[in-house]
Amino acid sequence: MADRIAVMDQGLLHQYGTPLDIYNRPVNAFVARFIGAPSMNLMRGTIADEKGVTKLKLGEAGTLALAGDDPLVELCRRAKSREILFGVRPEDVLLGPANGGGADGVQMSVTFVERIGPRSIVHLEAPGHTACVVGDSQLAAAIGDIAGLATTGRTHLFDAASGERVE
Fold first, then answer.
1. Which pLDDT belongs to residue 19?
2. From CA 62, how far away is CA 108, in angstroms rounded?
3. Beta-strand (E) ranges in the chain?
4. Does the pLDDT value for residue 133 go beyond 60?
């Protein structure tokens, strides 16, 4: 219930600002995980450039091919390391059908579904990764489903070693 908040850990001030600013633009992976319920999905991966297409390789979860006009393409160019944490808030993840084994696409297995009144929280897993999706109560998902994942475009990139936001 404040106009401004400070996010601290062990006496270190990580970020100070309005709740909405901190939620929308966390300065590092610690703040991204700390603010929000469920917290931001952070998936370890690497940046790759293949035949002129920038891709985020997220291990066994799959590969996210970025469109040329995607703001993440510029962030990938600015990243100091190819090792990154790809961040997306649970409400900014869209569930869809699995990609059918295609080369590009991110897919994960549904491990648990929480139906909480007007919303659903879908928990997902792939080897080395977990994620949550928040949607309305009609979100179609059942344990064991393999779901394709997309985003609304509101995504974040963090350096994997330092945890700092890529600007």
1. 95
2. 9
3. 5-9, 12-17, 41-50, 53-57, 62-65, 83-88, 93-97, 105-116, 119-126, 129-136, 146-151, 155-159
4. yes
The verdict on 20 and 66 lying in the same domain is no
**How many residues does the structure list for the chain?**
167
Same-domain check for residues 29 and 71: no
Interval 52-100: pLDDT, tens: 899 999 999 999 999 888 889 999 999 999 999 999 999 999 998 887 6
Same-domain status, 83 and 128: yes
User: Could you tell me which residues come within 8 angstroms of residue 93 by beta carbon, excluding any fewer than 6 positions away?
Assistant: 41, 131, 132, 133, 134, 149, 150, 151, 152
Instruction: Name 108's bridge partners.
Output: 147
Distance, in Å, from the CA atom of 110 to the CA atom of 144, rounded to the nearest integer, reads 5
Angle at 128 between CA 122 and CA 129, to 5 degrees: 25
Residue pair 100/115 in contact by the 8 Å Cβ criterion: no
Q: Are residues 25 and 53 in the same domain?
A: no
Residues 12 and 73 in one domain: no
Question: Are 71 and 19 contained in the same domain?
Answer: no
Residue of 94, 86, 95 whose CA lies nearest to 158: 86
Would you state the structure tokens that stand for residue 42, as one six-digit string? 């952070």
Question: Domain range spanning residue 31?
Answer: 1-35
Q: How many structural domains are present in the chain? A: 2
Reading the block at residue 101, the tokens are: 């084994």
